[in-house]
Amino acid sequence: MRTTILKTDVHPLALKVCSELQAHGHQAFIVGGCVRDLLLEVTPKDWDVTTSASPTEVMGIFPRTIPTGLQHGTITVCMGEGEENHFEVTTFRVEGEYLDGRRPEEVKFVKKVEEDLARRDLTINAMAYDPIANRMVDPFAGAFDLRCGIIRAVGDPAARFQEDGLRIMRVARFAARFGYKVDEYTMQGMMASIDILKRVSKERISDELCKTLLSTSSSYGMIVLRNSGALDIACPLLSGRELPLLGVQDRCQGDLETRLAFLYNRLPVKLVEEELLGLKLSTKEVKRVLFLLNTLEKFFFFKESSTLLSYRKFMARIKNEAPDTWEHTYQQFIELAKALELPFEKLTFYDEEVVLARRELAVNGNDLMGIGITPGPQLKVLLDKCYSEILEHPEHNTREYLIQLAMQ
Questions:
Q1: Is 179 within 8 Å of 221 (Cβ atoms)?
Q2: Residue 165, CB half-sphere, CA atoms under 13 Å: how many?
Q3: Burial of residue 325, with CB atoms counted within 10 A of its CB: 0-12 exposed, 13-18 middle, 19 or more buried
C-alpha cells in the first residue's frame, strides 16, 4: 500500500473535471472508492468527483452533462464518448433522517468536504483527494485503517447502519474483498441495527450477497454475515443450521452459481429454488444452481459403481440437459466437486471415453415414422431405446443399425 497519491495517478479527464471546477472558484476532489483504490495501488473502475459547486453550477461549467441524480446533487459530466469518459460529480451534501432505513428524507448541500465525508459509510470510503493542490482530506483516518486492515464505520456505527440497513451487507462485502477484519464496535453496531436490514429490498440484499460470494475472502465475508445476524435475513433457509462449509466458502472458485451450489448443498432442492427466487436471482441463474445440485445427487450414484456405463449415463445427462454448453457446465461441476472434496478423479479417469448426446443420434422421429412407426408415445420409447444403445455401444450409432433395432 502506498502512503501518498500523486496528481499523475489520477485519470487525466477526472483531473480536468477538478481543474475546471476549481478554475470557476469551486472546491473539487476525487472521492471515495477511487481514493481508496489508489492508495491500494489498484486502478479505480470509477472516478467520482465531489464539489462545492451546486448542480446548476456544474451544468453551467460543462457543455455536456446528464442530470443523473439531480435531487441528490449528482450530475454526470461527459468528457468524451463512452461511459469510461463519463464522471459523476456530486455536490457536498449532508443527509436528513432515514425514516425507512434506505434513503434520507432530505438532502442539504454544504460547503465543506469534511461534512460530506461524515455521511459516508466506512472510513476507507470516506477520503477525498484534491489533485490540483495535491491535498488529502481524511478526517476519519481511513488511510490508517487501510494500512491496519480494518473495516470501521464512520462515526457512530449504530447510527450509520440505522440510516441504511444495506450497509451491514456492505461491511461483509468489503471484508470479503480485502480480507480485512471488522472493527469490534462496528460489528456491535451491525448487530444492534440488524432489524433495519429487513426493510431493504431483496434485490439490493442479493446484489451484495453475490458480490461477497465472488470475493477473494468469501469465507470471512459469509462469517461476518452470520455473526451479525444478516445471513438469517438474507438467506433464511440457512438460519439455525450447522454450516461447516461456511468457513471454507472460498474453497469454491467457480462461477457465482457454483458458489451458491456450494453454499446450499445438502439442502432440499425445492426449498433452495424458492429461496433463490425470493432473492430475485434470474431464472437462468437459479436453473444453473439447481442443475448443479441435482448433478451432485447423480454423482453419488455414479461414485458407488464407477463403471464405464454409469459414467456415460452421468455425462449424458450433462450433455443433454445442461443449462449452458455442456463443457462449461461440466467444468463448473468439477469445480464444485473439488471444493466439496469429492473424488472427482473418478470422472476425469474416463475423459477419453465417447459419450454421445441425443442430438447426435443417427436417427430421428422422421426416420422411424418412415418405417411405419406411428407418432405417439411408442415413438419416444423407441428413440429412448436407440439412445440407450449408443450410450453403451457408441459404435452402433448408424442409421442402418438403429433402424434395425427399432424394427425388432
A1: no
A2: 23
A3: exposed
CA–CA separation, 222 vs 203, rounded Å? Answer: 18
At residue 391, the 3 state secondary structure works out as helix
| Residues 338 and 362 reside in one and the same domain | no
Burial category of 1 from C-beta neighbours within 10 Å (exposed 0-12, middle 13-18, buried 19 and up)? exposed
- Does residue 264 sit in the same domain as residue 218? no
Find all residues with CB under 8 Å of 295, minimum gap 6, and list them.
317, 318, 333
Does the pTM surpass 0.70? The reply is yes
How far is residue 218's CA from residue 133's CA, in Å, rounded to a whole number?
39
Claim to verify: residue 144 and residue 2 sit in the same structural domain: yes
- 43-82 pLDDT per residue, tens: 999 999 999 999 999 999 999 999 988 888 999 999 988 8
User: What is the C-alpha separation between 269 and 286, in angstroms, rounded?
Assistant: 11
The verdict on 24 and 131 lying in the same domain is yes
344 plus 258 within the same structural domain: yes
Residue 130 to residues 49, 133, 175, 288, Cα–Cα distance (Å): 10, 6, 27, 46
Helix, strand or coil, per DSSP, at residue 241: coil
